[in-house]
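Journal club prep, notes for RB
We'll compare a predicted complex against what the paper describes. Inputs for the heme C case:
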Amino acid sequence: MSKVRVVRSTVQRFISVHRARFLALPAALIAIVSLVAFRGTPMHSTSGVNPLVLPAGWPMPMVPADNPITQEKFVLGRQLFYETALSGDGKTSCATCHNSYKSFAAGGAHAGAFGDSSRPARTVPRLMNLAYDTTLTWDGHIHTLEEQATIAIQKKGDLLGDTAASFAELQNNPAYAVLFTQAFGDAQVTMDRIAKAIATFERCMISGNSPYDRYLAGNSAALSASALRGMQLFFDTTKTNCSECHNNMGSQSSNTFGQIFSDNNYYRTGTFEPNPIDIKRGGGYGFDTLPQDTNRFLDAGRAAVTRDSSDVGKFRTPSLRNVAMIGPYGADGTVPTLAQVIANYNRGGNDMFGSDSMQIFNKDPRIKALNLDSSQLQDLEAFLEDLSDYTYISDQRFQDPGVAAVTIDNHIIAQDLSFYPNPCPGTATLECPGMTGEVRLQLVAENGETVWQQTMHSDGRLAIQFPDLANGSYRLVLASGADEKTIPIVLQR
Ligand code: HEC
Ligand code: HEC
C-alpha cells in the first residue's frame, strides 16, 4: 500500500475521531497567519521550537534569506523526504537511496541519480551537516539544497518524477493541507514550497556527537589510544596530508580541527582510480572485478561543470564523518573498505592506469607515498571509525515519521519513541509512551533477514534482550496494524 493512502485513511479516521478539534484548526490558523502578516515577517513559525540544534561551539551555518528555518517547514520537509507519492513509480522516496541507518546513504553507485539518467553512476553521499556545504554533489554542479530537491523531484533520474500527478495527490491529501498551511500559511502545493521544506529538513540534519566530538568537548576517555594516535597522524601535516583537504572548510573557519572534514574543493587523488592490472589479479582495490556500474573512466568529474580539461577526474572532497558506517568509497565506489582507502593513500595513489602507461592527469601533488607502518595505518582507521555518530542515525527527529504526522488511536506516536542505549550492548529499553494495543517488533539484519521478533503489549515500555547476534547495523521495525516505524540500531557488544 502506498504511504499516501495510509496517510489519507489515517486522516479520515483522525477527522472522525477528533472532528471538533480538526474543524477548530482553520480558525486558529487564520488567527496565526494574520498575526504573522501584521508583524510583517515572512516566517510562519508558530511553535517557537528551533529545529536547528548545533553542538557547542559550532558556527551558525548559512541559511538563505528567502527560506528561514522554522519548525513547521522542518516537519513538512521530514514528511516529504519519506514521501513515495513524489515519485513516478509511487514507491521511491528520497530515503530509498538516502537510508537513515546508513547515515542517509545507500552503499553503492546509482545510475542517473543526479536528475539525468544519461550521466554516469555515482555513489550516494551520506547526508549530514549539509548546511555548511558551499556546493553539493561529487562535482559541485548543484549549489543549494533547494535546487537539489527540485532537481531530484523534477527530473527522471532520482524519483522518476511525474510532478503534475504527484502534486495533485498531495494537494488532495488533508494531512498535507494541514502541514502546508502550518508551514506556509495556506494549503497550496508548489514545487517551490516542497523544495523549501525539504531543504529546511536537510539543513537541520546536524551530526556532531561522535567519540571524536566528545573527546574535543573534554572527555579524554572518548577515544581509544589507537584512535588518539590516528587523530594526531590525521592532523599532522608533516606525517600525512589528510587534513589539507579533509579540513574545516579552510577559509570559512580558523578552527583547524574538522567539524566538516571537507574543504568543499575538487581534487583528483589517484587513490580511487582503478588500476586494471591490479583488478585482473584480484588485488589492488580489493574487488575481484570492478563493480558493474563503475564509471571512473567515463565520469569527467568537476570538468563536467567547468568544461576545463585541468578539472578532468577531480571530485569534491567528501566529509569523513560517519565514513565507517557505509562503503564502498569514492565518487563511484571503486574502493570497498576503509583499510583499502588508507592503504591506497599510503602508497601515494596511482599515477598510471594499468600497464599501457596512460597517465592519470591532474593528480594532486600532495598525494604521495606516506610510508606509514601497519600499526599507524590501523591507528588512522581507528580514528576514522571514531568519527561515527550513532546518536545521529538513531535521532527520531530525522526518522521516517510514518503516518504519525497526525495522531490517531491505537497508533505509535513517533516523536516519543525511544530506544536506548544505542549502540546497544545486547540489552536495551524501548519506550513508546503514547502506545495502546499491540506492537510487533522485528529486528532485521542488513541483508533483510529477520533475526529476532517479539510482541509488545500496551504498557509502552519494554526491556529487550537480543540473542547472540553479530555486531553491526540492524533495523528494529515496529508494526501496528498497517503502520510501520523503523529504528536504526547498532549492536556493539
Ligand atoms: C535513486 C537514488 C536517489 C534518490 C531517490 C535521491 N537521491 Fe539524492 N543523491 C543520489 C546520488 C547518487 C547523489 C550524488 C549525485 C552526484 O554527485 O552527482 C545524490 C546527492 C544528493 C545530495 C547532495 C549531497 C552531497 O553531499 O553532495 C542531496 C542533498 C540529496 N541527494 C538529496 C536528495 C533528496 C532531497 C531526494 C528526494 C527528493 C533525493 N536526494 C533522492 C541518489 C539519490
Ligand atoms: C588533495 C586532497 C586530499 C587529500 C590530501 C586527502 N584526501 Fe581523502 N579524498 C579527497 C577527495 C577529492 C576524495 C573523493 C575522491 C574520488 O572519489 O575520486 C577523497 C575521499 C576520501 C575517502 C572516501 C570517502 C567517501 O565518502 O567515499 C576517505 C576515507 C579519505 N578520502 C580519507 C583520507 C585520508 C585518511 C587522507 C590522508 C591519508 C586523505 N583522505 C587525504 C581529497 C583528499
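Talking point for the session: The radius of gyration is 24 Å.
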